[in-house]
Amino acid sequence: MGGMASQQGSSQTTIHPTLSQVIEAMESLWPLSLQAGWDASGIVAGRPEQIIERIHWAVDPVQAVADEAVGYDADLLITHHPLFLKPVTSVAATTFKGKVVHTLVENSCALITAHTNADSAVGGVSDVLAEILGLENIVPLAAAEDGLVEEGIGRVGTLQHAMQLEDFAARVYSAMPAVAGGVRVAGDPNGIVSKIAITGGAGDSLFDFVREHEADVYITADLRHHPASEAREQAMMSGDRPYLIDVSHFASEWLWLPTGANALERALADEGYTVTTAVSAINTDPWDFILTSGDDTKTITTETE
């Protein structure tokens, strides 16, 4: 992961879509009807008639990403995470979110976000994770209401061959972009696992669905102490499953970007339009470094003096 953008396509024609036509294509792939009620996906900035030739993709709409998109001469920045998930009363450039908006608008770069709608849709974040990890017989972890059978938050699937938790965790680690936090695992390293539940991003509210599917392992991000502790305590009362694998929120969702970019490029091509796309390689995980038990001689003493 460096600071350079990786090219995902090239333009051979001069027939480019408008922003409204890009939005139509995105709606066919990741319908806004699939987003959670609390979410804020969709267009944030941009004129419907604007011609879109270059599209930049990223997980987070942070300043470094906005600067990168402008440096790439992008007409559109698509991010997974919303910029305004919580309401604001100002977009003045004296605020960090306002500065992002000004950077993009002043350089004629529109902004669209595809969050939980891209999580739930077929080919979304968790589907990509499941495929990268080699899962088969994939179904939604929590099916979408009034959606297709394949739609919903998270995925559950099976490994082609059962393996030890330690080896499977190593597979997860090797699949993720490098971040400071690495991968945390709870469970018997030698435990045999076959059925895997996955939620890209934060998924500690979905433990009931994980248990309903009788998954051996649950992979998600941002596992907090109490939900993780309670999940493990409950698991140890009924066969020690599911084990837990906690990954970086950013890393788990970055993996979807190349797939999303390619899907949108193909959808536009089917309508006769050409765009050039690039995926940001900026690491927007908020953590810079980590200290572990092997970094010094500090220990926790549990014996009573």
From TrEMBL:
Binding site for a divalent metal cation: 80-81, 119, 249, 253
InterPro entries assigned: DUF34/NIF3, DUF34/NIF3_sf
MF terms in GO: metal ion binding
Keywords linked to the UniProt accession: Metal-binding
GO cellular component: cytoplasm
NCBIfam families named in the record: YbgI_SA1388
Binding partners and assembly: Homohexamer.
PANTHER family per record: GTP CYCLOHYDROLASE 1 TYPE 2 HOMOLOG, NGG1 INTERACTING FACTOR 3
Similarity comment: family membership: Belongs to the GTP cyclohydrolase I type 2/NIF3 family.
Name assigned to this protein: GTP cyclohydrolase 1 type 2 homolog
Taxonomic lineage from the root: Bacteria, Bacillati, Actinomycetota, Actinomycetes, Micrococcales
